[in-house]
Amino acid sequence: MLFWERGYEATSIADLTAAMGVGAPSLYAAFGSKRELFDEVVQVYGQTYHAFIARALIEEPTLKAGLDRMLREAAGAYTRPDLPRGCLVISAAVNCNAPEVEQALRALRTTDLDALERLVNVAIDAGELPAGTDARALAVYTSVVMQGMAQQARDGADRGDLEAVAALAMRAWPWTAP
Amino acid sequence: MLFWERGYEATSIADLTAAMGVGAPSLYAAFGSKRELFDEVVQVYGQTYHAFIARALIEEPTLKAGLDRMLREAAGAYTRPDLPRGCLVISAAVNCNAPEVEQALRALRTTDLDALERLVNVAIDAGELPAGTDARALAVYTSVVMQGMAQQARDGADRGDLEAVAALAMRAWPWTAP
DNA sequence: CAAATTCTGTAGCGATCGCTTCGGAAGGAT
DNA sequence: ATCCTTCCGAAGCGATCGCTACAGAATTTG
User: Fold this and answer.
1) B161 contacts A136 by C-beta, under 8 angstroms
2) Contacts of B113 (CB under 8 A, 6+ apart)
3) Residue A127 has pLDDT above 80, yes or no
4) Do A152 and B144 touch (CB under 8 A)?
5) pLDDT, tens digit (0-9, with 9 covering 90-100), for A31-70
């Protein structure tokens, strides 16, 4: 979880071995390289701490309810006192001289954005949003809010601040009258 | 401007001297250290590429017009083809092992956020927003949108995408009827 | 109990980091 | 022309980077 807090490059092998309580050779025997270890960490992170996004959007019956839950849960997830602030996928590869690592996380973000755009289009087809709504704009807007919330969490915003942001962000959507 | 593109730590002295076409001793004679050079760069950046924010908010007669202009200009400023994407103040010290540098940029962001909150309070007093409006929530929300736009610009969003985001973001505000 | 195998912790590899020292070229004064 | 000052590029300083070779401990096997 040091990768989450400090990012990929700012976390050294010495930091990792000290935190894990193992020697460097054991680490390399188990994972092969720093990059492979990071890939492993990203995968675990995705299944553990990033999954609330897909869960919220899938489990709720309407896009509006899913987005509201996603943003509200993000406010909590990004400010948990027992975990690093913000989001590993968003922050860990910023200012990273390893292009492959930066690209890997960027690809994850792009995947989320495209999935969001598809869900918006589904909601348009279902009449939850007016025909002619700009699905990509709403998807990018939602990504902007999520990424901004993660950044603000790192800058010290607390859960209440971000929940208020989540509520405000929902007001921008052009829902059809319920 | 390498600091803008790659961040503080990911930019090495060798990168800087190569880009400037001078030797390392000249650089140290002129600026003292990498950190002092960065401070200088941040100051120039603030006066040159960050000033549109204060200009938009000050020069427009209403907060609504100022925010609209700020967000719209941010869409352009963060995606200029002749400059690095996004914003140095937001990105350059992410995942930075030098706490003083990270704190310096964080302080700039906090200053902007507090100034925004004051402007929202002014607008509430002026009747542009309803009494009882949560000024801090709106200020944090606006920072979230600006930081998220900067991040999305780095992820490849183009100017049109961000202008659409700017227009959407404005819809969240509880303006009193004009 | 002894021998063989796996594992772990230390030390060190080359490369690069921020930064500094030093030799030699350039230019002005006498 | 000679001397002196100024400046700049190459080389190198200790520290740290990701990574690995090797010795000794621990464990398994006969």
Assistant:
1) yes
2) B139, B140, B143
3) yes
4) yes
5) 999 999 999 999 999 999 999 999 999 999 999 999 999 9
Rounded Cα distance, B86 and B80, in Å: 9
List bases, strand C, within 7 Å of protein CB.
7-12, 16-22
Q: How far A119 CA lies from chain B's nearest CA (Å)?
A: 18
pLDDT for res A104: 97
pTM of the full predicted structure?
0.94
Q: Is B51 exposed, middle or buried (0-12, 13-18, 19+ CB in 10 A)?
A: exposed
The pLDDT value recorded for residue A1 is: 84
Q: How far, in Å, CA of B141 to CA of B36, rounded?
A: 32
Q: Is the CB of A25 under 7 A from strand C?
A: yes
Orientation of helix A159-170 relative to helix A63-77, angle to 10°:
160
Spatial distance between the Cα atoms of B90 and B50, rounded to a whole number of angstroms? 11
Percentage helix, strand, coil for chain A under 3-state DSSP, each rounded to 5: 70, 0, 30
Task: Please report the pLDDT score of residue B83 as a whole number.
Answer: 98
Beta-carbon separation of B10 and A9 below 8 A? yes
Contact present, B2 and B38 (Cβ < 8 Å): no
Q: Is the CB of B33 under 7 A from strand C?
A: yes
* CB distance A42 to A28 below 8 Å: no
pLDDT of B24 reads 87
- What integer pLDDT is reported at residue B63 of this predicted model? 98
